[in-house]
Every structure is written in C-alpha cells, then in structure tokens.
Design brief:
The structure is a single chain. The protein is 41% helix and 25% strand. The relative contact order is 0.15. By secondary structure, the chain is an alpha+beta fold. The protein starts with a helix and ends with a helix.
Length: 186
C-alpha cells in the first residue's frame, strides 16, 4: 500500500515538473494579449489620428479643437488601459502609452489603408526576465488597383517584472522585417 502511494506521489511530482517546464517555454498570456492589441488593425478604439496643422500659414486651433483633441487623447488612453493596462508592472503602462510600439502598426493602417493581424506568436529565446518573441504579422492592402497580402516575421523583446513574470516592464519592436518600407510603397 505504501509503495502504491509512493508511486502516485512520485508520478504527480513528475507531471507537475513537466508542466512547469513547458510553461517556461511559452509566451505569457499578458504578452499575447498586448501583441494582438498592438498589431491588429485597423482598431478605431485604440487609435484615431487627430491630424493637426501647425506652422506658417495655418490657423491657430480654437478652444473647441483643442478640447476635442484632448478628449480624443483621453478616450484613447482609457481604451488602452481597459484593453491591456493589467498586462504591465506597476508604473509601466504610461511608459508604454508614450512608446512608438503602441501605434506602429495601427498608424500604418490608418495612413496607408492596410489591415494587419497576428498570424503566429512564438518564443525564440528566454533569458531570466527577458523574452525574444517572433510574431508573424499578416498585412493586407485594400488598394483599389491591386490587393496584396504579405507575411512579416517581426521580432520583439519583452522585459518582465522580476517579481511577477506575467507583468511587462517594456516591450520593444526590434525588427519589422521590412513592414514599414512595404507599407509606405503601397
């Protein structure tokens, strides 16, 4: 009887160890959620450009225009906070909000009329609290002359909180695989 209990306990220990090891080789849910929010466009809740003209020969914006712009910025910030605010370590959401990664794909979609989506997310390398992740981004133009679909193997570096490896400190796009150049040509 003791032998059977010992075998069951050992089996449970081995299964837990294997599950733990496989979890270490996965991209955390927080990062997957954030990457989808960053890449998938168009997304009018998370990005709406407010074009403004400033310079010689342009009118100074009136109070209504300034208020409308401030309101749009606040709505966008709240939408990002609701969507991915819980993915970040304490105090790091605002840093992300001011980063170019947040609007890289969304802005391209808005300016050039392309659609982008996440096709695949995979962990490339993990060191301590840093992960290098490859995200296959599928981009599609809806040009009236000729539509084109292309995949881009983008690379990202994500630094996690040392105390909670699900929470993100920073995220950085390290290689867009030519997406920007392709998108600008369209």
């Amino acid at each position: 009887m003791k032998r059977n209990i010992r075998i069951i306990v050992m089996g449970a220990f081995v299964i837990n160890a294997l599950i733990g090891c496989s979890k270490q080789n996965e991209v955390p849910d927080s990062t997957t959620k954030l990457l989808h929010a960053i890449v998938e466009s168009p997304n009018e809740e998370l990005y709406h450009a407010q074009p403004t003209e400033i310079g010689i020969g342009t009118d100074v914006p009136d109070e209504e225009e300034i208020e409308a712009t401030q309101k749009a910025v606040e709505e966008e910030k709240n939408a990002w906070d609701e969507t991915v605010g819980d993915c970040f370590a304490k105090g790091m959401f605002d840093t992300f909000l001011n980063s170019q990664e947040r609007i890289y794909f969304l802005g391209a979609s808005d300016v050039n009329g392309c659609q982008t989506s996440v096709k695949k997310i995979e962990l490339v390398e993990k060191n301590d609290n840093i992960q290098h992740i490859k995200v296959t981004v599928q981009a599609e133009t809806s040009d009236y002359k000729e539509a084109e679909t292309k995949d881009f193997e983008t690379e990202w570096r994500v630094i996690y909180d040392k105390d909670d490896p699900e929470l993100i400190q920073t995220i950085e796009l390290t290689d867009d695989d030519g997406f920007w150049e392709w998108n600008v040509k369209k």
